[in-house]
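Weekly modeling sync, notes
Attendees: AB, CL, MP (scribe)

Item 1: holo prediction request
CL wants a bound-state model with alpha-D-glucopyranose before deciding which constructs to order. AB pointed out that an apo prediction alone won't tell us much about the pocket. Agreed to run with the ligand included and paste results into these notes for async review.

Input as submitted:
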Amino acid sequence: MSAPPSTSARPRVVTAPDGAGPGPGAAPWWTSAVVYQVYPRSFADSDGDGVGDLRGITSRLDHLADLGVDVVWLSPVYASPQDDNGYDISDYRAVDPAFGTLEDLDALTEGLHARGMKLVMDLVVNHTSDEHPWFVESRSSPSSAKRDWYWWRGPREGMPAGAPGAEPTNWRSHFSGPTWTLDEASGEYYLHLFARKQPDLNWENPQVRAAVHDMMRWWLDRGVDGFRMDVINMISKHVAEDGSLADGRDADPRTGLAGGGEQYLCGPRIHDYLAEMHAEVFAGRPEALLTVGEMPGVTVADAQRFTDPQSAEVDMVFQFEHVDLDHDGSKWRPVPLDLLALKASFGRWQAGLAERGWNSLYWNNHDQPRIVSRWGDDSPEHRAASARCLATLLHLHRGTPYVYQGEELAMANFPWRSAGELRDIESLNHLAEEAGHGADPEEVLARVAVSSRDNARTPVQWDASASAGFTTGEPWIAVNPDHGEWNAEAQRADPTSVLAHYRRLVALRHEWPVVALGDFRMLLPEHEQVYAFTRRLEGADADGRPASDELLVVANVGGTPVDLADLLPEAVGAAELVLGTAHGRDEADVLADPVLAPWEARVLRTA
Ligand code: GLC
Protein backbone atom coordinates (compact mmCIF):
# COMPACT_ATOMS: atom_id res chain seq x y z
CA MET A 1 0.00 0.00 0.00
CA SER A 2 1.37 3.40 -0.90
CA ALA A 3 0.50 6.71 0.72
CA PRO A 4 -3.19 7.55 0.72
CA PRO A 5 -4.30 9.39 -2.44
CA SER A 6 -3.61 13.09 -2.40
CA THR A 7 -6.49 15.46 -1.78
CA SER A 8 -4.36 18.40 -2.82
CA ALA A 9 -4.52 19.82 -6.31
CA ARG A 10 -1.26 21.72 -5.87
CA PRO A 11 1.68 20.52 -7.99
CA ARG A 12 4.58 18.94 -6.16
CA VAL A 13 8.22 19.92 -6.36
CA VAL A 14 9.97 17.41 -8.53
CA THR A 15 13.23 19.30 -9.07
CA ALA A 16 15.09 21.93 -7.12
CA PRO A 17 16.32 24.88 -9.21
CA ASP A 18 19.98 25.16 -10.07
CA GLY A 19 21.90 27.30 -7.69
CA ALA A 20 19.41 26.89 -4.84
CA GLY A 21 21.35 24.30 -2.90
CA PRO A 22 21.96 20.81 -4.11
CA GLY A 23 19.01 20.09 -6.41
CA PRO A 24 18.30 16.51 -7.40
CA GLY A 25 20.30 17.02 -10.57
CA ALA A 26 23.34 18.21 -8.68
CA ALA A 27 22.99 16.39 -5.37
CA PRO A 28 25.02 13.22 -4.87
CA TRP A 29 23.00 10.02 -5.41
CA TRP A 30 23.22 9.02 -1.75
CA THR A 31 21.23 12.05 -0.60
CA SER A 32 18.07 10.22 -1.65
CA ALA A 33 19.29 6.72 -0.76
CA VAL A 34 18.53 4.40 2.14
CA VAL A 35 21.18 1.99 3.40
CA TYR A 36 20.43 -1.41 4.95
CA GLN A 37 22.98 -3.02 7.26
CA VAL A 38 23.49 -6.77 7.22
CA TYR A 39 25.28 -8.46 10.14
CA PRO A 40 26.14 -11.68 8.30
CA ARG A 41 26.48 -13.94 11.33
CA SER A 42 22.83 -13.34 12.22
CA PHE A 43 21.09 -12.73 8.90
CA ALA A 44 20.47 -16.10 7.23
CA ASP A 45 22.28 -19.44 7.39
CA SER A 46 22.37 -21.49 4.17
CA ASP A 47 24.26 -24.59 5.36
CA GLY A 48 22.77 -25.42 8.74
CA ASP A 49 25.89 -24.77 10.84
CA GLY A 50 24.01 -22.18 12.88
CA VAL A 51 26.06 -19.22 11.60
CA GLY A 52 24.68 -16.87 8.97
CA ASP A 53 26.62 -16.77 5.70
CA LEU A 54 26.94 -15.14 2.28
CA ARG A 55 24.74 -17.64 0.45
CA GLY A 56 22.13 -17.05 3.11
CA ILE A 57 22.18 -13.33 2.34
CA THR A 58 21.97 -13.99 -1.40
CA SER A 59 18.94 -16.20 -0.80
CA ARG A 60 17.14 -13.31 0.89
CA LEU A 61 17.81 -10.51 -1.58
CA ASP A 62 14.16 -10.27 -2.51
CA HIS A 63 13.41 -9.07 1.02
CA LEU A 64 15.81 -6.16 0.50
CA ALA A 65 14.58 -5.39 -3.01
CA ASP A 66 11.01 -5.41 -1.73
CA LEU A 67 11.93 -2.97 1.02
CA GLY A 68 13.38 -0.77 -1.70
CA VAL A 69 16.74 0.03 -0.13
CA ASP A 70 19.55 1.30 -2.33
CA VAL A 71 22.66 0.07 -0.57
CA VAL A 72 23.64 -2.88 1.57
CA TRP A 73 26.41 -2.37 4.12
CA LEU A 74 27.89 -5.70 5.01
CA SER A 75 29.57 -6.09 8.40
CA PRO A 76 32.94 -7.88 8.10
CA VAL A 77 33.10 -11.24 6.32
CA TYR A 78 36.91 -11.31 6.00
CA ALA A 79 39.11 -14.09 7.38
CA SER A 80 39.14 -13.68 11.13
CA PRO A 81 39.56 -15.59 14.38
CA GLN A 82 36.15 -14.06 15.25
CA ASP A 83 37.23 -12.73 18.63
CA ASP A 84 35.03 -9.69 17.95
CA ASN A 85 32.79 -11.36 15.34
CA GLY A 86 34.96 -10.39 12.41
CA TYR A 87 36.09 -6.91 13.53
CA ASP A 88 39.45 -8.63 14.05
CA ILE A 89 40.74 -9.37 10.56
CA SER A 90 43.57 -11.76 9.76
CA ASP A 91 43.37 -11.48 5.95
CA TYR A 92 41.77 -8.48 4.24
CA ARG A 93 41.58 -10.24 0.89
CA ALA A 94 39.93 -13.48 1.93
CA VAL A 95 36.45 -14.46 3.08
CA ASP A 96 36.18 -16.34 6.34
CA PRO A 97 35.12 -19.96 5.71
CA ALA A 98 32.34 -19.46 8.27
CA PHE A 99 30.73 -17.06 5.77
CA GLY A 100 31.70 -18.76 2.49
CA THR A 101 34.15 -17.94 -0.28
CA LEU A 102 35.21 -15.00 -2.43
CA GLU A 103 33.05 -16.48 -5.19
CA ASP A 104 30.05 -16.37 -2.85
CA LEU A 105 30.81 -12.72 -2.22
CA ASP A 106 31.04 -12.05 -5.96
CA ALA A 107 27.68 -13.78 -6.40
CA LEU A 108 26.17 -11.59 -3.67
CA THR A 109 27.57 -8.46 -5.33
CA GLU A 110 26.12 -9.53 -8.67
CA GLY A 111 22.78 -10.33 -7.10
CA LEU A 112 22.63 -6.89 -5.52
CA HIS A 113 23.73 -5.10 -8.66
CA ALA A 114 21.16 -7.01 -10.72
CA ARG A 115 18.47 -5.62 -8.42
CA GLY A 116 19.85 -2.08 -8.58
CA MET A 117 21.44 -2.15 -5.14
CA LYS A 118 25.02 -1.37 -4.17
CA LEU A 119 27.36 -3.18 -1.78
CA VAL A 120 29.38 -1.32 0.83
CA MET A 121 32.01 -3.31 2.74
CA ASP A 122 33.15 -2.75 6.30
CA LEU A 123 36.69 -1.40 6.44
CA VAL A 124 38.39 -2.24 9.74
CA VAL A 125 41.82 -0.67 9.62
CA ASN A 126 42.35 0.98 12.99
CA HIS A 127 43.48 -2.49 14.01
CA THR A 128 44.01 -5.99 12.63
CA SER A 129 43.77 -9.36 14.33
CA ASP A 130 46.86 -10.43 16.26
CA GLU A 131 46.80 -13.39 13.84
CA HIS A 132 47.26 -11.14 10.79
CA PRO A 133 50.66 -11.91 9.17
CA TRP A 134 51.60 -8.22 9.58
CA PHE A 135 51.27 -8.49 13.34
CA VAL A 136 52.85 -11.94 13.53
CA GLU A 137 55.90 -10.49 11.77
CA SER A 138 55.83 -7.31 13.86
CA ARG A 139 55.77 -9.30 17.07
CA SER A 140 58.54 -11.69 15.97
CA SER A 141 61.34 -9.33 16.99
CA PRO A 142 62.01 -5.69 17.94
CA SER A 143 64.17 -5.54 14.81
CA SER A 144 61.43 -6.87 12.50
CA ALA A 145 60.82 -4.80 9.36
CA LYS A 146 57.17 -4.54 10.44
CA ARG A 147 57.84 -3.70 14.09
CA ASP A 148 56.79 -0.11 13.46
CA TRP A 149 53.54 -1.14 11.75
CA TYR A 150 51.99 -1.39 15.24
CA TRP A 151 52.43 0.50 18.51
CA TRP A 152 55.17 -1.09 20.60
CA ARG A 153 56.36 0.64 23.77
CA GLY A 154 58.41 -0.25 26.83
CA PRO A 155 56.99 -0.17 30.37
CA ARG A 156 56.33 3.06 32.20
CA GLU A 157 59.59 4.69 33.28
CA GLY A 158 61.09 3.18 36.41
CA MET A 159 58.72 0.20 36.44
CA PRO A 160 59.43 -3.40 35.50
CA ALA A 161 57.50 -4.83 32.55
CA GLY A 162 54.43 -6.68 33.72
CA ALA A 163 54.10 -4.88 37.07
CA PRO A 164 50.57 -3.62 37.81
CA GLY A 165 50.24 -0.14 36.32
CA ALA A 166 53.46 -0.43 34.27
CA GLU A 167 51.55 -0.10 30.97
CA PRO A 168 52.91 2.76 28.82
CA THR A 169 49.67 4.76 29.29
CA ASN A 170 46.63 4.47 31.55
CA TRP A 171 44.07 4.19 28.73
CA ARG A 172 41.12 1.88 29.23
CA SER A 173 40.23 -0.56 26.45
CA HIS A 174 36.73 -0.26 24.97
CA PHE A 175 36.38 -3.90 25.98
CA SER A 176 37.55 -3.45 29.64
CA GLY A 177 41.05 -3.53 31.15
CA PRO A 178 44.16 -1.71 29.90
CA THR A 179 44.80 -0.99 26.21
CA TRP A 180 48.25 -2.56 26.41
CA THR A 181 49.31 -6.19 26.47
CA LEU A 182 52.83 -7.27 27.35
CA ASP A 183 54.74 -9.42 24.90
CA GLU A 184 56.89 -11.47 27.29
CA ALA A 185 59.51 -12.30 24.66
CA SER A 186 60.53 -8.69 24.00
CA GLY A 187 59.44 -7.10 27.28
CA GLU A 188 57.46 -4.52 25.26
CA TYR A 189 53.76 -3.80 25.20
CA TYR A 190 51.52 -3.42 22.14
CA LEU A 191 48.53 -1.11 21.96
CA HIS A 192 44.96 -2.31 21.41
CA LEU A 193 42.13 0.17 21.91
CA PHE A 194 39.77 -2.83 21.73
CA ALA A 195 40.45 -6.51 22.60
CA ARG A 196 43.97 -7.82 23.08
CA LYS A 197 43.49 -9.75 19.84
CA GLN A 198 42.94 -6.41 18.00
CA PRO A 199 46.34 -4.64 17.92
CA ASP A 200 46.23 -1.05 16.60
CA LEU A 201 47.97 -0.33 13.31
CA ASN A 202 50.45 2.54 13.34
CA TRP A 203 49.12 4.98 10.72
CA GLU A 204 52.15 7.23 11.24
CA ASN A 205 54.02 4.70 9.12
CA PRO A 206 53.48 5.45 5.39
CA GLN A 207 53.91 1.78 4.49
CA VAL A 208 50.85 0.95 6.59
CA ARG A 209 48.79 3.57 4.82
CA ALA A 210 49.96 2.41 1.39
CA ALA A 211 49.12 -1.22 2.23
CA VAL A 212 45.60 -0.22 3.32
CA HIS A 213 45.04 1.90 0.20
CA ASP A 214 46.18 -0.95 -1.99
CA MET A 215 43.74 -3.33 -0.33
CA MET A 216 40.89 -0.84 -0.72
CA ARG A 217 41.59 -0.41 -4.45
CA TRP A 218 41.61 -4.19 -4.78
CA TRP A 219 38.06 -4.36 -3.39
CA LEU A 220 36.78 -1.52 -5.55
CA ASP A 221 38.29 -3.20 -8.60
CA ARG A 222 36.38 -6.34 -7.60
CA GLY A 223 33.14 -4.40 -7.84
CA VAL A 224 32.24 -3.22 -4.34
CA ASP A 225 30.71 0.23 -4.10
CA GLY A 226 32.34 1.78 -1.06
CA PHE A 227 33.22 1.39 2.58
CA ARG A 228 31.86 1.94 6.05
CA MET A 229 35.03 2.77 7.96
CA ASP A 230 35.20 1.26 11.42
CA VAL A 231 36.26 3.68 14.23
CA ILE A 232 38.15 5.60 11.57
CA ASN A 233 38.63 8.68 13.75
CA MET A 234 40.87 6.64 16.07
CA ILE A 235 43.67 6.11 13.55
CA SER A 236 45.64 9.25 14.45
CA LYS A 237 47.06 9.23 17.97
CA HIS A 238 48.72 12.18 19.73
CA VAL A 239 52.41 11.27 19.71
CA ALA A 240 55.10 13.43 21.33
CA GLU A 241 58.36 14.21 19.51
CA ASP A 242 60.11 11.50 21.49
CA GLY A 243 57.47 8.97 20.39
CA SER A 244 55.73 8.78 23.75
CA LEU A 245 51.97 8.73 24.28
CA ALA A 246 50.37 10.61 27.16
CA ASP A 247 48.08 9.40 29.96
CA GLY A 248 44.35 10.07 29.76
CA ARG A 249 42.61 12.46 32.15
CA ASP A 250 40.46 11.56 35.15
CA ALA A 251 41.54 8.01 35.88
CA ASP A 252 39.05 5.83 37.75
CA PRO A 253 40.54 5.26 41.23
CA ARG A 254 39.12 1.73 41.24
CA THR A 255 41.11 0.59 38.20
CA GLY A 256 43.70 3.32 37.67
CA LEU A 257 42.45 3.55 34.06
CA ALA A 258 41.18 6.58 32.13
CA GLY A 259 39.13 6.77 28.91
CA GLY A 260 42.03 8.38 27.10
CA GLY A 261 39.87 9.39 24.12
CA GLU A 262 41.38 12.89 24.04
CA GLN A 263 44.65 11.20 23.06
CA TYR A 264 43.31 9.41 19.99
CA LEU A 265 39.84 10.63 18.87
CA CYS A 266 40.10 12.92 15.83
CA GLY A 267 43.84 13.14 16.47
CA PRO A 268 46.25 15.61 14.85
CA ARG A 269 46.66 13.89 11.47
CA ILE A 270 43.16 12.46 10.97
CA HIS A 271 42.21 14.91 8.22
CA ASP A 272 45.51 14.32 6.42
CA TYR A 273 44.99 10.56 6.54
CA LEU A 274 41.44 10.71 5.22
CA ALA A 275 42.27 13.24 2.51
CA GLU A 276 45.22 11.09 1.45
CA MET A 277 43.01 7.99 1.41
CA HIS A 278 40.47 9.82 -0.71
CA ALA A 279 43.13 10.91 -3.19
CA GLU A 280 44.79 7.50 -3.33
CA VAL A 281 41.69 5.34 -3.46
CA PHE A 282 38.56 7.21 -4.56
CA ALA A 283 39.52 10.28 -6.58
CA GLY A 284 38.84 10.01 -10.28
CA ARG A 285 36.86 6.76 -10.09
CA PRO A 286 33.85 6.96 -12.34
CA GLU A 287 31.66 4.69 -10.20
CA ALA A 288 29.03 6.02 -7.79
CA LEU A 289 30.65 5.15 -4.47
CA LEU A 290 29.76 5.72 -0.82
CA THR A 291 32.06 6.35 2.13
CA VAL A 292 30.88 6.66 5.70
CA GLY A 293 33.20 7.02 8.67
CA GLU A 294 32.23 5.64 12.06
CA MET A 295 33.44 8.31 14.49
CA PRO A 296 32.81 8.04 18.23
CA GLY A 297 33.15 11.41 19.96
CA VAL A 298 33.00 13.43 16.73
CA THR A 299 31.64 16.98 17.12
CA VAL A 300 29.43 18.87 14.68
CA ALA A 301 32.38 21.11 13.80
CA ASP A 302 34.61 18.10 13.08
CA ALA A 303 31.85 16.51 11.02
CA GLN A 304 31.45 19.65 8.90
CA ARG A 305 35.02 19.35 7.82
CA PHE A 306 35.01 15.55 7.38
CA THR A 307 31.94 15.68 5.13
CA ASP A 308 32.45 18.98 3.31
CA PRO A 309 32.83 17.95 -0.35
CA GLN A 310 35.63 20.52 -0.59
CA SER A 311 37.68 18.58 1.97
CA ALA A 312 37.35 15.35 -0.07
CA GLU A 313 37.50 13.06 2.97
CA VAL A 314 34.27 11.05 3.49
CA ASP A 315 30.67 11.45 2.33
CA MET A 316 29.13 11.21 5.80
CA VAL A 317 29.94 10.16 9.34
CA PHE A 318 28.25 8.11 12.01
CA GLN A 319 28.16 10.26 15.13
CA PHE A 320 27.20 9.02 18.59
CA GLU A 321 25.76 12.04 20.36
CA HIS A 322 22.14 10.82 20.32
CA VAL A 323 22.90 7.23 21.31
CA ASP A 324 25.01 8.49 24.20
CA LEU A 325 22.08 10.39 25.74
CA ASP A 326 20.57 7.55 27.74
CA HIS A 327 23.53 6.59 29.86
CA ASP A 328 25.67 8.27 32.39
CA GLY A 329 29.23 8.32 31.02
CA SER A 330 29.50 4.54 30.76
CA LYS A 331 27.16 2.55 28.52
CA TRP A 332 26.65 0.19 31.45
CA ARG A 333 24.94 2.89 33.54
CA PRO A 334 21.69 3.49 31.64
CA VAL A 335 19.47 6.48 32.46
CA PRO A 336 16.06 7.34 30.94
CA LEU A 337 16.11 9.25 27.67
CA ASP A 338 15.35 12.97 27.93
CA LEU A 339 13.33 13.73 24.77
CA LEU A 340 14.27 17.41 24.96
CA ALA A 341 17.94 16.47 24.86
CA LEU A 342 17.31 14.20 21.89
CA LYS A 343 15.57 17.00 19.99
CA ALA A 344 18.30 19.45 20.89
CA SER A 345 20.95 17.04 19.66
CA PHE A 346 19.26 16.27 16.35
CA GLY A 347 18.45 19.94 15.88
CA ARG A 348 22.10 20.87 16.34
CA TRP A 349 23.31 18.27 13.85
CA GLN A 350 20.65 19.18 11.30
CA ALA A 351 21.60 22.85 11.53
CA GLY A 352 25.34 22.19 11.65
CA LEU A 353 25.38 20.19 8.43
CA ALA A 354 22.75 22.20 6.57
CA GLU A 355 25.09 24.29 4.44
CA ARG A 356 28.13 22.06 4.26
CA GLY A 357 28.42 18.32 4.72
CA TRP A 358 25.79 15.66 5.23
CA ASN A 359 24.25 13.64 8.07
CA SER A 360 23.75 9.94 8.39
CA LEU A 361 20.69 8.92 10.39
CA TYR A 362 20.41 5.79 12.52
CA TRP A 363 18.70 4.33 15.55
CA ASN A 364 20.21 0.89 15.32
CA ASN A 365 23.26 -1.05 14.24
CA HIS A 366 25.07 -4.17 15.45
CA ASP A 367 26.42 -2.27 18.49
CA GLN A 368 23.17 -0.77 19.78
CA PRO A 369 20.21 -2.29 21.62
CA ARG A 370 16.95 -2.47 19.65
CA ILE A 371 15.25 0.91 19.31
CA VAL A 372 11.69 -0.32 19.92
CA SER A 373 12.79 -1.61 23.34
CA ARG A 374 15.07 1.32 24.00
CA TRP A 375 13.10 4.47 23.14
CA GLY A 376 9.84 2.96 21.95
CA ASP A 377 7.57 0.66 23.90
CA ASP A 378 7.86 -3.05 23.18
CA SER A 379 4.77 -4.01 25.17
CA PRO A 380 2.16 -5.74 22.97
CA GLU A 381 -0.07 -2.66 23.05
CA HIS A 382 2.43 -0.17 21.66
CA ARG A 383 5.16 -2.16 19.93
CA ALA A 384 4.10 -1.71 16.31
CA ALA A 385 2.94 1.87 16.78
CA SER A 386 6.10 2.98 18.55
CA ALA A 387 8.30 1.28 15.94
CA ARG A 388 6.43 3.09 13.15
CA CYS A 389 6.58 6.38 15.02
CA LEU A 390 10.34 6.26 15.63
CA ALA A 391 10.99 5.14 12.06
CA THR A 392 8.96 8.05 10.72
CA LEU A 393 10.86 10.55 12.81
CA LEU A 394 14.26 9.30 11.76
CA HIS A 395 13.49 8.93 8.06
CA LEU A 396 11.98 12.39 7.75
CA HIS A 397 15.15 14.13 8.93
CA ARG A 398 17.63 15.41 6.38
CA GLY A 399 20.43 12.88 5.90
CA THR A 400 20.92 9.32 4.73
CA PRO A 401 18.93 6.83 6.83
CA TYR A 402 20.36 3.44 7.81
CA VAL A 403 18.10 0.49 8.59
CA TYR A 404 19.65 -2.29 10.64
CA GLN A 405 18.47 -5.84 9.90
CA GLY A 406 15.28 -6.66 11.78
CA GLU A 407 14.57 -3.02 12.62
CA GLU A 408 12.06 -3.06 9.77
CA LEU A 409 10.27 -5.91 11.60
CA ALA A 410 10.28 -4.12 14.99
CA MET A 411 12.63 -6.75 16.40
CA ALA A 412 13.09 -6.20 20.13
CA ASN A 413 15.76 -6.79 22.77
CA PHE A 414 16.25 -10.35 23.97
CA PRO A 415 15.01 -11.34 27.45
CA TRP A 416 18.47 -12.33 28.77
CA ARG A 417 18.26 -14.53 31.85
CA SER A 418 21.86 -15.67 32.35
CA ALA A 419 25.38 -14.69 31.40
CA GLY A 420 25.67 -18.03 29.60
CA GLU A 421 23.30 -16.78 26.90
CA LEU A 422 25.53 -13.83 25.99
CA ARG A 423 28.16 -14.10 23.26
CA ASP A 424 29.65 -10.61 22.85
CA ILE A 425 33.22 -10.02 24.02
CA GLU A 426 32.31 -6.54 25.25
CA SER A 427 29.52 -7.83 27.51
CA LEU A 428 31.47 -10.88 28.70
CA ASN A 429 34.58 -8.85 29.55
CA HIS A 430 32.47 -6.36 31.46
CA LEU A 431 30.76 -9.11 33.47
CA ALA A 432 34.17 -10.62 34.30
CA GLU A 433 35.63 -7.25 35.27
CA GLU A 434 32.72 -6.43 37.57
CA ALA A 435 32.90 -9.91 39.13
CA GLY A 436 36.57 -9.16 39.85
CA HIS A 437 35.48 -6.05 41.73
CA GLY A 438 32.99 -8.08 43.76
CA ALA A 439 29.88 -6.51 42.20
CA ASP A 440 26.50 -8.23 42.58
CA PRO A 441 26.24 -10.48 39.48
CA GLU A 442 22.44 -10.16 39.24
CA GLU A 443 22.64 -6.41 39.27
CA VAL A 444 25.42 -6.33 36.66
CA LEU A 445 23.51 -8.75 34.42
CA ALA A 446 20.39 -6.60 34.65
CA ARG A 447 22.32 -3.60 33.31
CA VAL A 448 24.12 -5.63 30.65
CA ALA A 449 20.76 -7.02 29.51
CA VAL A 450 19.60 -3.49 28.70
CA SER A 451 22.72 -2.34 26.87
CA SER A 452 24.39 -5.44 25.45
CA ARG A 453 25.27 -5.44 21.76
CA ASP A 454 23.91 -8.99 21.65
CA ASN A 455 20.42 -7.46 21.64
CA ALA A 456 21.11 -6.51 18.04
CA ARG A 457 22.70 -9.81 17.16
CA THR A 458 19.99 -12.40 17.70
CA PRO A 459 18.95 -14.01 14.40
CA VAL A 460 16.68 -12.23 11.96
CA GLN A 461 13.15 -13.48 12.42
CA TRP A 462 12.06 -14.68 9.00
CA ASP A 463 9.12 -16.86 10.05
CA ALA A 464 7.45 -18.57 12.99
CA SER A 465 9.31 -21.89 12.68
CA ALA A 466 11.58 -23.25 15.42
CA SER A 467 14.68 -21.19 14.56
CA ALA A 468 12.72 -18.39 12.92
CA GLY A 469 13.77 -19.58 9.45
CA PHE A 470 17.31 -18.42 10.21
CA THR A 471 18.92 -21.89 10.30
CA THR A 472 18.07 -25.56 10.17
CA GLY A 473 20.78 -26.15 12.79
CA GLU A 474 21.55 -24.85 16.24
CA PRO A 475 21.81 -21.03 16.08
CA TRP A 476 25.07 -19.56 17.43
CA ILE A 477 23.03 -17.23 19.64
CA ALA A 478 19.46 -17.73 20.83
CA VAL A 479 16.52 -16.75 18.66
CA ASN A 480 14.17 -14.30 20.36
CA PRO A 481 11.19 -16.25 21.75
CA ASP A 482 8.82 -13.60 20.34
CA HIS A 483 9.51 -14.70 16.74
CA GLY A 484 6.26 -16.66 16.54
CA GLU A 485 4.43 -13.38 16.32
CA TRP A 486 7.13 -10.97 15.11
CA ASN A 487 8.56 -12.16 11.83
CA ALA A 488 8.94 -11.14 8.19
CA GLU A 489 6.50 -13.67 6.81
CA ALA A 490 3.70 -12.42 9.03
CA GLN A 491 4.34 -8.82 8.04
CA ARG A 492 5.09 -9.11 4.34
CA ALA A 493 1.54 -9.02 3.01
CA ASP A 494 0.03 -6.94 5.80
CA PRO A 495 -0.36 -3.28 4.74
CA THR A 496 -0.54 -2.20 8.37
CA SER A 497 2.72 -3.93 9.38
CA VAL A 498 5.89 -2.21 10.51
CA LEU A 499 7.60 -3.69 7.45
CA ALA A 500 5.04 -2.08 5.14
CA HIS A 501 5.63 1.23 6.90
CA TYR A 502 9.39 1.05 6.34
CA ARG A 503 8.71 0.27 2.67
CA ARG A 504 6.65 3.47 2.44
CA LEU A 505 9.33 5.53 4.18
CA VAL A 506 12.00 4.34 1.76
CA ALA A 507 9.73 5.13 -1.20
CA LEU A 508 8.96 8.58 0.16
CA ARG A 509 12.64 9.52 0.17
CA HIS A 510 12.97 8.36 -3.42
CA GLU A 511 9.86 10.14 -4.64
CA TRP A 512 9.78 13.44 -2.74
CA PRO A 513 12.81 15.74 -3.23
CA VAL A 514 11.71 17.67 -0.13
CA VAL A 515 12.34 14.56 2.00
CA ALA A 516 15.85 14.19 0.67
CA LEU A 517 16.87 17.83 0.32
CA GLY A 518 14.46 20.16 2.10
CA ASP A 519 15.55 22.52 4.86
CA PHE A 520 14.95 21.34 8.42
CA ARG A 521 13.33 23.42 11.16
CA MET A 522 12.66 22.03 14.65
CA LEU A 523 9.35 23.02 16.30
CA LEU A 524 8.28 22.79 19.97
CA PRO A 525 11.81 22.14 21.26
CA GLU A 526 10.56 22.34 24.86
CA HIS A 527 7.63 19.92 24.56
CA GLU A 528 8.08 16.72 26.55
CA GLN A 529 6.06 14.41 24.31
CA VAL A 530 5.64 15.89 20.83
CA TYR A 531 8.49 15.78 18.33
CA ALA A 532 7.69 18.11 15.44
CA PHE A 533 9.58 19.73 12.60
CA THR A 534 9.18 21.06 9.09
CA ARG A 535 11.01 20.31 5.86
CA ARG A 536 10.83 22.87 3.07
CA LEU A 537 12.06 22.94 -0.51
CA GLU A 538 11.68 25.56 -3.24
CA GLY A 539 11.87 24.13 -6.72
CA ALA A 540 9.94 23.40 -9.85
CA ASP A 541 6.98 21.20 -10.71
CA ALA A 542 6.84 18.63 -13.49
CA ASP A 543 6.14 21.37 -16.04
CA GLY A 544 9.09 23.46 -14.91
CA ARG A 545 6.98 26.06 -13.09
CA PRO A 546 8.21 27.36 -9.71
CA ALA A 547 6.73 25.35 -6.84
CA SER A 548 7.43 24.75 -3.19
CA ASP A 549 6.78 21.88 -0.83
CA GLU A 550 6.58 22.08 2.91
CA LEU A 551 6.11 19.02 5.08
CA LEU A 552 5.13 19.17 8.72
CA VAL A 553 6.10 16.08 10.68
CA VAL A 554 4.38 15.54 14.02
CA ALA A 555 4.91 12.57 16.29
CA ASN A 556 3.56 11.61 19.66
CA VAL A 557 6.53 10.03 21.43
CA GLY A 558 4.52 8.57 24.27
CA GLY A 559 1.72 6.30 25.39
CA THR A 560 -1.02 8.89 26.04
CA PRO A 561 -2.98 10.96 23.48
CA VAL A 562 -1.91 14.57 22.78
CA ASP A 563 -4.18 17.36 21.56
CA LEU A 564 -2.46 19.58 18.98
CA ALA A 565 -5.25 22.15 18.65
CA ASP A 566 -3.54 24.82 20.75
CA LEU A 567 -0.04 23.43 20.62
CA LEU A 568 0.43 23.31 16.86
CA PRO A 569 -2.71 24.59 15.13
CA GLU A 570 -1.09 24.36 11.70
CA ALA A 571 -1.08 20.57 12.10
CA VAL A 572 -4.87 20.53 12.03
CA GLY A 573 -6.58 20.76 8.66
CA ALA A 574 -3.42 20.44 6.54
CA ALA A 575 -3.70 19.96 2.79
CA GLU A 576 -2.54 16.38 2.57
CA LEU A 577 -1.59 13.40 4.70
CA VAL A 578 1.53 12.24 2.93
CA LEU A 579 2.12 9.40 5.35
CA GLY A 580 0.40 8.40 8.56
CA THR A 581 0.41 5.60 11.07
CA ALA A 582 -3.29 5.51 11.99
CA HIS A 583 -4.44 2.59 9.92
CA GLY A 584 -8.05 2.07 9.02
CA ARG A 585 -8.89 5.77 9.22
CA ASP A 586 -9.97 8.03 6.43
CA GLU A 587 -7.45 10.67 5.35
CA ALA A 588 -9.97 13.52 5.78
CA ASP A 589 -10.80 12.26 9.21
CA VAL A 590 -7.15 12.18 10.31
CA LEU A 591 -6.45 15.62 8.82
CA ALA A 592 -9.31 17.16 10.80
CA ASP A 593 -8.50 15.39 14.07
CA PRO A 594 -6.35 17.46 16.45
CA VAL A 595 -5.65 14.48 18.71
CA LEU A 596 -2.60 12.33 18.11
CA ALA A 597 -3.13 8.80 19.41
CA PRO A 598 -0.36 7.19 21.50
CA TRP A 599 2.77 6.88 19.32
CA GLU A 600 0.96 8.26 16.28
CA ALA A 601 3.04 10.08 13.64
CA ARG A 602 1.83 12.15 10.71
CA VAL A 603 3.68 13.56 7.73
CA LEU A 604 1.55 16.45 6.51
CA ARG A 605 1.90 18.61 3.44
CA THR A 606 1.21 22.20 4.34
CA ALA A 607 2.36 24.02 1.20
C1 GLC B 1 33.26 -0.56 15.90
C2 GLC B 1 32.36 -1.71 15.51
C3 GLC B 1 32.28 -2.66 16.66
C4 GLC B 1 33.66 -3.20 16.91
C5 GLC B 1 34.67 -2.07 17.15
C6 GLC B 1 36.07 -2.57 17.02
O1 GLC B 1 32.74 0.20 16.90
O2 GLC B 1 31.13 -1.23 15.11
O3 GLC B 1 31.38 -3.71 16.44
O4 GLC B 1 33.65 -4.04 18.05
O5 GLC B 1 34.53 -1.04 16.20
O6 GLC B 1 36.37 -2.92 15.70
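Recorded for review: The mean pLDDT is 95.
Action items: CL to compare against the apo run; MP to circulate these notes.
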